[in-house]
Specification:
MetI-like fold; 12 strands; flat
Length: about 550
C-alpha cells in the first residue's frame, strides 16, 4: 500500500475522479437548464377539473398543469385552504389558467380536496395573444366581416386558422410601416430639425440662410405629405384588423369576444398528433430566437438581446485586441526591465481582480459623462440638450468591457512571447534580420496562438458580464437595433439589449414570476450556447494558426 501511494497512482485516480465529477455536474446543469427552458415550448395539454367547495358549490378550472407540490396540512390551513381534520399532508396543483384580463391572474394554486379526476377535452383551445397572456376556453363562434360561423359547423377550424393568418399578415404590414417607413420619415424630420438648429448656431449670411431654409421647408412639406399617405394606409389596415372576432367560452361559462388582431396563434393541444406537436415546438423555438419580446419580456423572443450581445462582443474584441497586444509587446520586447516595468505588470495583474461593477462606475463617469459629454459639445452641439454620445450606449459598453478584459489579453500575450525560444531570435538576427523584422515576422506569428487564447478568455468574460453593463448602455427593452438600414447603418450611440441583463430582468424584475421562470432557463441556455460558439470559433482559429507555425517553432 505504501509503495502504491509513493507511485502516485492514487493521486492520478483522485484527479481523474474530480474531473469526471466536474464534467457530470456541468452536463447535469446544462441538462436541467435545457429541460426546464426548452420544455416550455412544447405544447402542454389543457386539463379540466371540477372542484367541489366546502359549501357544496362547484366550479371548473381549465388550464395547463404546471407542477404539483406536497405541503403539510397546517401550512395549507394557514394559507386559507379548507383541510379535513384527518389529513396531515396534502397535494396542491399549480394551474396556468390564463385569461388574465378576465380573472386578474395567470396562475392559481388548487388543493386536491374536493378535486375530481382530470379530463383533457379535445375542443379546448389555447390562444396566444400579444397582450394579457394566453387565453384558455372553448370556441363558440367566429365572426368574419359580420358573418358568424359556429364551432359545430364543418370547416370551422380551417376558417379560424385562415383568419389568424390574415391578422398576422396585417400586423406585420402595420409593423413594417410603423418601424421602417415611418421610422425613416421620423429620422429625416429629425435631421431637418438639426439642420435648422445648426443654421441658427452658425449665423450665416442672409442669402445662405434663405436658400437653406427654403430647402428645409420644401423637404419638410414632402415628408409631411408622405407621412399623411402612410397614416391613411395605416388607418385602413387598423380597420381591417378588427374585422374578425372569435367568441370563446371560459370554464366559468362566461363568453368573451376576442379580436383576432391581438392573437398570435390558436392551437388545440389535446387534439394534436405527435408530428403536429413537433412542428409546433420547432415553430415556437424559432420565434423565440428571432422575434422581439412582449409582455414585459415574459412572452415573445429574445432576438434583440442575442443581436446586442454579439454586436457588443465584436466591438469589444476590435477595441481590446490591438491595445492588449501592443501593450504586451512593448512590455516584453521594448521596455527596459526594471522597477517601473515591474510596477506596471503588478498593476495589470491587480486590474484583473477589480470587481466588474467598479469598471461600470468608471465607464459611466469617464467614458459617458466626460468623453461623451465633450464629444456632444464639440460635434453634436445642435442636438443638445439631448445627448448623442453623452449617454450610455453600445460604444461605451464595449469600451468598458474592453478595459475590463485588457489585463487578460496582456497577460496571455506576454506569456506567449516569453515561451518563444531565444534561439529563434538569435537565429533570425544572425541571418541579418533587424530586431523589428525578427519581432513582426518571426516572434509575433509564433505567439499568435497565445494571443488567441487571451481573446477567447476575454470573449467568455465579456459575454457573461452584467453588472457594469447596467450602467453604460444595456437596457430592459431597446426600440431599435444598433445596426439597421438607416445611414450610417452602424449606430454606436444606441442602447442595446443583452442576454445576461435579460436574464436578470426577467428573473428578478418580472411581475409574473411563474410565467418568467421557463424563459430564464431558456435564455440562460442560449447565453451559454452563444459563449460556446464564440469560443469554438476562436479556438478553431487558434488551432489553425498553431498548426501553421508548428514547424517553425520546432
Amino acid at each position: 500500500m505504501k509503495s502504491w501511494f509513493k507511485s502516485g497512482a492514487p493521486w492520478v485516480w483522485l484527479n481523474g475522479g474530480a474531473v469526471a465529477i466536474c464534467m457530470l455536474m456541468v452536463i447535469g446543469l446544462l441538462g436541467l437548464i435545457a429541460v426546464r427552458g426548452f420544455g416550455h415550448f412544447w405544447p402542454a395539454a389543457i386539463a379540466e377539473v371540477e372542484i367541489t367547495e366546502q359549501d357544496g358549490s362547484r366550479r371548473v378550472v381549465l388550464g395547463e398543469k404546471v407542477r404539483s407540490q406536497i405541503i403539510p396540512a397546517a401550512v395549507a390551513k394557514d394559507a386559507g385552504y379548507f383541510v379535513p381534520d384527518d389529513l396531515e399532508l396534502m397535494t396542491r396543483w399549480l394551474f396556468k389558467q390564463g385569461n388574465r384580463d378576465q380573472t386578474g391572474r395567470d396562475f392559481i394554486w388548487e388543493t386536491e380536496v374536493g378535486m375530481a379526476d382530470f379530463t383533457y377535452p379535445e375542443n379546448a383551445y389555447s390562444i396566444e395573444r400579444r397582450e394579457w397572456g394566453n387565453f384558455y376556453g372553448y370556441p363558440v363562434k367566429l365572426t368574419v366581416d359580420g358573418q358568424a360561423m359556429t364551432a359545430e359547423e364543418s370547416g370551422f377550424w380551417e376558417a379560424l386558422q385562415a383568419s389568424v393568418e390574415r391578422s398576422i399578415v396585417l400586423h406585420d404590414d402595420i409593423k413594417a410601416i410603423e418601424r421602417r417607413r415611418i421610422g425613416r420619415i421620423n429620422t429625416d424630420i429629425e435631421a431637418l430639425r438639426l439642420d435648422q438648429r445648426r443654421l441658427d448656431l452658425s449665423n450665416p449670411t442672409a442669402s445662405v440662410r434663405e436658400a437653406e431654409e427654403a430647402r428645409i421647408n420644401q423637404r419638410s412639406l414632402e415628408l409631411n405629405a408622405e407621412y399623411a399617405e402612410l397614416r391613411e394606409e395605416l388607418d385602413k389596415l387598423y380597420v381591417s384588423t378588427n374585422r374578425d372576432v372569435l367568441t370563446m367560452r371560459m370554464a366559468s361559462g362566461d363568453e368573451v369576444d376576442l379580436s383576432l388582431a391581438t392573437v398570435v396563434r390558436v392551437t388545440a393541444p389535446n387534439a394534436m398528433s405527435l408530428p403536429s406537436k413537433l412542428g409546433h415546438y420547432m415553430t415556437m423555438l424559432g420565434e423565440f430566437l428571432t422575434e422581439d419580446p412582449r409582455e414585459a419580456n415574459t412572452e415573445g423572443g429574445i432576438f434583440p438581446a442575442i443581436f446586442g450581445t454579439i454586436t457588443m462582443v465584436f466591438v469589444m474584441t476590435i477595441i481590446v485586441t490591438p491595445f492588449g497586444i501592443f501593450a504586451a509587446i512593448y512590455l516584453r520586447e521594448y521596455a527596459k526591465q526594471g522597477t517601473m516595468t515591474r510596477i506596471i505588470r503588478i498593476s495589470v495583474y491587480n486590474l484583473a481582480g477589480v470587481p466588474s461593477i467598479v469598471y461600470g462606475v468608471f465607464g459611466l463617469g469617464f467614458f459617458v459623462y466626460f468623453l461623451g459629454g465633450n464629444i456632444d459639445r464639440m460635434f453634436y452641439e445642435a442636438s443638445l440638450p439631448a445627448p448623442t454620445f453623452g449617454t450610455p450606449g453600445l460604444f461605451w459598453a464595449s469600451l468598458t468591457l474592453a478595459l475590463l478584459t485588457l489585463p487578460i489579453v496582456i497577460v496571455s500575450t506576454e506569456e506567449g512571447l516569453a515561451r518563444i525560444p531565444s534561439t529563434i531570435r538569435q537565429g533570425s538576427l544572425a541571418l541579418g534580420a533587424t530586431k523589428s523584422e525578427t519581432l513582426w515576422k518571426v516572434i509575433v506569428p509564433l505567439a499568435t496562438p497565445a494571443m488567441m487564447t487571451g481573446m477567447i478568455l476575454a470573449i467568455a468574460r465579456a459575454a457573461g458580464e452584467v453588472a457594469p453593463l447596467m450602467l453604460v448602455g444595456v437596457v430592459k427593452l431597446a426600440p431599435t437595433l444598433p445596426i439597421d438600414g438607416i445611414a450610417p447603418f452602424i449606430h454606436l450611440e444606441r442602447k442595446i439589449m443583452h442576454l445576461g441583463f435579460h436574464i436578470y430582468d426577467v428573473g428578478f424584475q418580472s411581475p409574473n414570476v411563474e410565467a418568467a421562470r421557463p424563459l430564464v432557463y431558456a435564455t440562460a441556455l442560449i447565453l451559454v450556447m452563444l459563449i460556446v460558439i464564440l469560443n469554438l470559433a476562436a479556438i478553431s482559429i487558434r488551432n489553425h494558426l498553431r498548426e501553421r507555425y508548428r514547424s517553425a517553432s520546432d
